[in-house]
């Protein structure tokens, strides 16, 4: 059986990656439709060896579409997802619009695949924040083994997480530094070239940013509401790939060697952890890859059962497009879709 798929936000960073990943993984596609705003009508995007012309999301009829992969931001999702879902098309949304809705499953297939059964309530499934996706892939197998009590995360997030405008800003500012042009801050609140910015998304009343709050709320929803999580989210001048320094406190004893063995066998994880120059992963090397890489696995002797990890992944892939396509595969593999066009 093959399915009709729509990509909303097909001209964006994540939308283009969704098209690449659907083609790479030979998703059973009957037809793919690329959608974006009216600004992009007729723009060409690639799907495998085919070229698709972008259509306007406004008034697009989803009644014969099986799955809509949505990555056009929260405001667009809030407006359009319920309408698309009401036409019988399952929406898998990459924005934060639906993640905290108790009637919408939030899924990382390696972590909580069974939660997908709840999707029929709204016909919407949420994809987590990019930083949370890679974090929970690494935490899940360790939690199963030694029960995590508390996690302290510091993120080093690439500019592609802020969309194609974020990538352009890093490029333009870097160039401006070299040719001594004035530096303009449009997308980020401070200069990102040759700098780091401890501010992603808006500030909340308690002084944390929304990005930091997302990491704790989403980890609790997907992994275990009892885990205590605190986070500092930082934007760094890297184009693609997020890194995270992760400090974990467990209920039960676990050695670094045991953690390394568990993570080596865990789905979605790849351990690169040699105690030598270059024996670890960096964001630059993760770009274009599917795995969540885990390096620098060490015991933290300052707490009873503690570990430190360095977790790296391509934020456009596992953090967004890949996870969304994996959710679509889960729907297909569990027989939860009928294939409306083919039927
Ligand atoms: P467009 O290129 O037509 O603006 P990124 O996060 O990389 O900036 O990408 C955002 C994506 O969301 C783009 O494909 C963008 O399309 C799309 N988008 C933004 N606003 C809308 C809208 N109102 N309707 C449909 N697509 C939208």
Describe the protein in words.
Keywords: Amino-acid biosynthesis, Diaminopimelate biosynthesis, Lysine biosynthesis, Methionine biosynthesis, NADP, Oxidoreductase, Threonine biosynthesis. This is Aspartate-semialdehyde dehydrogenase. One of its GO terms (molecular function) is aspartate-semialdehyde dehydrogenase activity. Belongs to the aspartate-semialdehyde dehydrogenase family. It comes from Pseudohoeflea coraliihabitans. With about 350 residues, this protein is an alpha/beta fold. It has two domains: about 5-125 and about 320-335, Rossmann fold, CATH 3.40.50.720; about 130-315, 2-Layer Sandwich (Dihydrodipicolinate Reductase, domain 2). Helix content is about 30%, strand content about 25%. A six-stranded parallel beta sheet has the order 5-2-1-6-7-8, sandwiched between helices. A six-stranded mixed beta sheet has the order 10-9-11-14-13-12. Strand 3 (about 45) and strand 4 form a beta hairpin. Helix 1 crosses helix 9 (about 315-335), helix 4 (about 130-145) packs across helix 6 (about 210-220) and helix 4 crosses helix 9 (about 315-335). It starts with a strand and ends in a 10-residue tail after the last helix. The mean pLDDT is about 95. Bound molecules: adenosine-2'-5'-diphosphate. Adenosine-2'-5'-diphosphate binds near residues 36 and 37. Adenosine-2'-5'-diphosphate binds near residues 37, 57 and 73.
């Amino acid at each position: 059986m093959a399915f009709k798929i729509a990509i909303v936000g097909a001209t964006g960073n994540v939308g283009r990656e969704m098209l690449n990943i659907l083609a790479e993984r030979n998703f059973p596609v009957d037809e793919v439709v690329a959608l974006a705003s009216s600004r992009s009508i007729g723009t060409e995007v690639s799907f495998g060896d085919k070229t698709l012309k972008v259509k306007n999301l406004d008034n697009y009829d989803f009644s014969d579409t099986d799955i809509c992969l949505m990555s056009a931001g929260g405001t667009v999702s809030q407006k359009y997802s319920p309408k698309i879902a009401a036409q019988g098309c399952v929406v898998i949304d990459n924005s934060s619009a639906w993640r905290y809705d108790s009637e919408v499953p939030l899924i990382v297939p390696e972590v909580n695949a069974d939660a997908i059964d709840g999707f029929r309530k709204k016909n919407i499934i949420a994809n987590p924040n990019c930083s949370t996706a890679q974090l929970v892939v690494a935490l899940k197998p360790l939690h199963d083994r030694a029960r995590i009590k508390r996690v302290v995360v510091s993120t080093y997030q690439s500019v592609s997480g802020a969309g194609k405008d974020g990538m352009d800003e890093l490029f333009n500012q870097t160039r401006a530094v070299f040719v001594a042009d004035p530096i303009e801050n449009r997308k980020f609140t401070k200069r990102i070239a040759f700098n780091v910015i401890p501010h992603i998304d808006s500030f909340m009343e308690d002084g944390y940013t929304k990005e930091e709050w997302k990491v704790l709320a989403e980890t609790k929803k997907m992994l275990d509401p009892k885990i205590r999580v605190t986070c500092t989210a930082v934007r760094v001048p890297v184009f693609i790939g997020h890194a995270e320094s992760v400090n974990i406190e467990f209920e039960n004893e676990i050695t670094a060697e045991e953690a390394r063995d568990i993570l080596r066998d865990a789905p979605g994880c790849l351990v690169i952890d040699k105690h030598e120059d270059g024996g670890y992963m960096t964001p630059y090397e993760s770009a274009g890859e599917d795995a969540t890489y885990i390096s620098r696995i060490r015991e933290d002797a300052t707490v009873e059962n503690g570990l430190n990890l360095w977790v790296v992944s391509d934020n456009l892939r596992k953090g967004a497009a890949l996870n969304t396509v994996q959710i679509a595969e889960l729907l297909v593999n569990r027989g939860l879709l009928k294939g409306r066009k083919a039927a």
